[in-house]
Fold these 3 entries.
Entry 1:
Amino acid sequence: MEPVERENKTIPTSPVNAPEEEMPLIFIDVSISPTETKRISIFAGDTPEELSEDFCRIHKLGDKMRRKLELLLQGQLDELTKEYLDKK
């Protein structure tokens, strides 16, 4: 996967090319067509709304896809939060 541009900043798509202080919490691969998949890197402080808006703007996807993606991202972040809290 190649890095994704977001707000004039290259988002690393793997831990190998990311400075430690900028490591994503999670990566999510999103199918944007039957033959194309793009990766979203989620960092601390990111919101599903901002991520879905940026992703859909960059990849020229419509509002219906943005809403679906926002729900998917919220679900993933909720699960990540639950797993973190369960470990405490």
Entry 2:
Amino acid sequence: MKKKILAVCLVLVSICILSSCGPSSVKGKWTDSDKQTLRAELQKQDWSKLGDNKNKFIDCYMSKVEQKYNSINELAKDTEGNTKISTECANQFLAPPPVKKEPEPEPEQEPNETN
């Protein structure tokens, strides 16, 4: 999962370079363009470990980064904060591994005593 989070960080740096022109986002109110760009990049990633929770993860991540950062550019510069948010959202939606239930031992039978 750490490799996946690092990949997201690298994608964000690329987005930072591509989105340096146009209207600016502000904390809590990103431009539609910044939101669409980030969502599109997140959708491209392999989130198979999240299963059906992929979109919930992306919504969680988008909401948290929009509230914390002024723009994609600012987000891309904060690898540590980005990783923390990714981890928080992933932990909310990753299914716990299935618990293997050990078979219960058969009860010991007492020998039949015949007199």
Entry 3:
Amino acid sequence: MNKVWENFISILKDGYRNWNVYSARSSRKEFWLWALHVWLFAVVTRPLESSVEGASVLILLPVIPSIAMWVRRIHDTGHRVWWCIIPGIGGIINLVFLLSGTDTTETRWVRPEERLA
């Protein structure tokens, strides 16, 4: 359990540290642990909105790092992000890409072995 916790904390640190890195890759595990963090963050900060002044701004903290993590995850599957913003079917394409495994071929973004994490 301790190793899992250390891995989770490492992914959080890398996610916030690399908030402006879009030309890299993020593994499926890294992306979904980040998504778990964002969900837990929202669950914790949501009740604070009504009781603490300025807490509504706090909930926006993971937005930009989440976009960067999403772009890196799409790159990890070997696709371009533009496929995911097509009106109508973009959501389905996005979900398929996010659930897909890593594309092991070298892409224009980065080779698979040169991940951030």
